[in-house]
UniProtKB/TrEMBL annotation:
The gene is SEC14L5. InterPro entries: CRAL-TRIO_dom, CRAL-TRIO_dom_sf, CRAL/TRIO_N_dom, CRAL/TRIO_N_dom_sf, GOLD_dom, GOLD_dom_sf, PRELI/MSF1_dom, SEC14/CRAL-TRIO_domain. This is SEC14 like lipid binding 5. It comes from the Eukaryota. Residues 504-655 form the GOLD domain. GO terms for cellular component: cytoplasm. Pfam families: CRAL_TRIO, CRAL_TRIO_N, PRELI. Residues 1-161 form the PRELI/MSF1 domain.
Length: 696
């Protein structure tokens, strides 16, 4: 638990032989609250930074000093560590924050969060070098810090300290204190270390369960946790959730979605694990490829959207669900599409869905019960034939498809009011693209039927009903109106530069692999000892990844003749000429790696020679049989199943100078594959000279 981690952490001071760069510390200030619940210690820490001798000489320092403030809150059971540099504070600003807290659903788990920022204003012309040194030191400290905590936890256990009881207020004077069980020390700090309650489990990251739970009840979820955060589950549904979560823990190292998110995909597929797993994996890859996790931080709606997009959040409904109001009848969908483009509208809708998930979590904490979906109130007053403009309907259908695939079971209820006569036409067009489970959540009111009993008041408090629907609540949702034609884009300007394209603004590339048509990319290396790094996800099918070297420059060719159709190939390029002989014209420098559907692969290779390095993905098939053995039945069936299908993948690669590899921020990004908003933990990996590793 977190309090034992705080005890272990304090053992690092005043010196820590386990961390050689930590030379010592001095307490500058120490204080405790009157009730003893909060203990604050501020220290000056002396560090020996692993920097070149020349840089130290230019800077005129041998060591650096940091100010560290540790705050232990025994009442809330948290430990917060804040640090900033004292040396060169006018040139470099380093801020780091760490926090330990007790997991809200399981007191034997500890949540750990860590963040850091580096701002280099100036450093004698060595700004780039200092940044690399800082990144190298930081990543090293992350790994070493975890090892040190584990070391001192074991030391506490060896001393018989395996449980720290909850903090209790001090006994009032004159009252007799109850004797704490198994208390064996006199001081208050020692009393906190007393008792025995079995071994603890460490969990770094946010509120995700450990990858390998050691509890004998790991195949069950805590009943209070289910009731508080997930809602009612049958034993079968609980079992499906645990099985899918365990599969993710085994295959998607360090990027496990929260239980609420996994549960949405299970419900969308009626708790069919195979179908839910396929849907979830596709969605996770989609989020990674298009950087959806960062959309709330990166997306700023154009002023045109703020004025003419008639939608916005508005309190919550009677069940505590966040309420989103969309005045679709007042929205000039044709004008918005012509002025902004389909991509900007899609990006805006995605940001709304991300915000909706965030608000659901906030309401769950606010109301003390699981809120996993939101309510949408759609006002169709003003809907007319203009809204049936074909490109506008096409854009709407595409948005519905993307939302249905990646945000299942997030819509709790859809209230449609003031539906005009033209609505059945629109409904006929869009309803086939809406999941049956979602359609069952639609409530449609024509005319003024939404007023009075049986109408909106059954689902939304009267005090929250907006004024334009006869309620008393002022609503800030824009009224919309026609977008001026002067703001329309020209044919030569399909997308304004300010409106970043969601589907193309990504560091990842997509590719298709067909039988007999591998996808290949070439990297030219001008000097040896460079580092090629790669990161790719297999979206569909199984492929074999290989890396080759050639002194000859390959020629690009697109596979056409042997494909079922040229359009099916997608992004597919072949570079290795059929006349080339392996071992003569080119050589293999990495062993073939079989990559299964849904796997995420990261790796690197330190080049030995200049020349052309070819990264190849080809469709995986059964190994050729020897003359004395028959093919396996499984191989034959697998060959038949994939022969008419193509494999799909997304990939990213970069080339780094060897001297910069381990300290480069870019290389760290290549080695990590996380989902910040969905993931309970992040993972960092160090690469050997030539390596590939999986986070399936």
């Amino acid at each position: 638990m977190a309090m034992k981690h705080s005890q272990a952490y304090e053992k690092r001071f005043p010196t820590c032989p386990e961390i050689p760069v930590f030379l010592g510390s001095e307490i500058l200030h120490e204080s405790k609250s009157d009730d003893g619940a909060i203990h604050i210690i501020e220290r000056s820490c002396k560090l020996n930074v692993d920097a070149p001798r020349l840089l130290k000489k230019i800077a005129g320092v041998e060591y650096v000093f940091f100010i560290q403030k540790n705050t232990v809150n025994w009442k809330e059971r948290t430990l917060r560590i804040e640090a900033h540099n004292e040396t060169f504070a006018n040139r470099v600003v380093v801020l780091e924050t760490c926090s330990y807290s007790v997991h809200p659903e399981n007191e034997e788990w500890t949540c750990f969060e860590q963040s850091a920022s580096l701002d280099i204003k100036s450093f004698f012309g060595f700004e780039s070098t200092v940044e690399k040194i800082a990144m190298k030191q930081y990543t090293s400290n992350i790994k070493r810090g975890k090892e040190v905590i584990e070391h001192y936890l074991k030391e506490l256990i060896s001393q018989g300290i395996t449980f720290i009881p909850r903090w209790t207020p001090p006994v009032a004077q004159g009252q007799k204190a109850e004797q704490a069980p198994a208390a064996s020390h006199d001081t208050s700090d020692a009393a906190l270390e007393a008792g025995a309650h079995g071994a603890t489990k460490e969990q770094t990251g946010s509120s995700c369960p450990p990858a390998e739970p050691v509890s004998p009840d790991a195949d069950k979820l805590d009943a209070d946790y289910i009731e508080r955060y997930l809602g009612q589950l049958t034993p079968m549904q609980e079992s499906c959730l645990i099985r899918l979560r365990q599969w993710l823990q085994e295959t998607h190292k360090g990027k496990i979605p929260k239980d609420e998110h996994i549960l949405r995909f299970l419900r969308a597929r009626d708790f069919n694990i195979d179908k839910a797993r396929e849907m979830l994996c596709q969605s996770l890859s989609w989020r990674k490829q298009y950087q959806v996790d960062y959309i709330l931080q990166s997306w700023r709606p154009p002023a045109l959207l703020d004025e003419y997009y008639t939608g916005g959040w508005h309190y919550q409904d009677r069940d505590g669900r966040p309420l989103y109001i969309l005045r679709l009848g007042q929205m000039d969908t044709k004008g918005l599409v012509k002025a902004l483009g389909e991509e900007s509208l899609l990006r805006h809708v995605l940001s709304i869905n991300e915000e909706g998930q965030k608000r659901c979590e906030e309401n769950t904490n606010l109301f003390g019960r699981p809120i996993t979906s939101w309510t949408c109130l759609v006002d169709l007053e003003g809907l007319n034939m203009r809204h049936l403009w074909r490109p506008g309907v096409k854009a709407l259908l595409r948005i519905i498809e993307v939302v249905e695939d990646n945000y299942p079971e997030t819509l709790g209820r859809l209230l449609i009011v003031r539906a005009p006569r033209v609505f059945p036409v629109l409904w006929t067009l869009v309803s086939p693209f809406i999941n049956e489970n979602t359609r069952q959540k639609f409530l449609i009111y024509s005319g003024n039927n939404y007023q009075g009993p049986g109408g909106l008041v059954d689902y939304v408090d009267k005090e929250v009903i907006p004024d334009f629907l006869g309620g008393d609540c002022m609503c800030t949702v824009p009224e919309g109106g026609l977008v001026p034609k002067s703001l329309y884009q020209t044919d030569e300007e399909p997308e304004n530069a300010d409106h970043i394209r969601l589907w193309t603004e990504t560091i990842y590339h997509s590719a298709s692999v067909l039988r007999g048509a591998p996808h290949e990319i070439v990297v030219e290396i001008l000097e040896g000892e460079s580092v090629i790094t790669w990161d790719f996800d297999i979206l569909k099918g199984d492929v074999v990844f290989s890396l080759f070297h050639s002194k000859r420059a390959p020629e690009t060719s697109h596979k056409e003749a042997t494909l079922p159709s040229t359009s099916a190939a997608g992004d597919n390029v072949q570079l290795i000429d059929k006349t080339w002989v392996l071992g003569v014209d080119y050589s293999r420098v990495e062993s073939p790696l079989v990559c299964r559907e849904g796997e995420s692969i990261q790796g690197s290779h330190v080049t030995r020679w200049p020349g052309f390095y070819i990264l190849q993905w080809k469709m995986h098939g059964p190994l050729p049989c020897s003359g004395t053995s028959l093919p396996r039945v499984d191989d034959v069936l697998a060959s038949l199943q994939v022969s008419s299908h193509k494999c799909k993948l997304i990939y990213y690669y970069e080339v780094l100078a060897s001297k910069d590899f381990r300290g480069s921020m870019s290389s760290l990004e290549s080695c990590n594959s996380g989902f910040s908003q969905l993931s309970g933990a992040t993972t960092s990996s160090s690469q050997s000279q030539s390596s590939s590793h999986l986070s399936r």
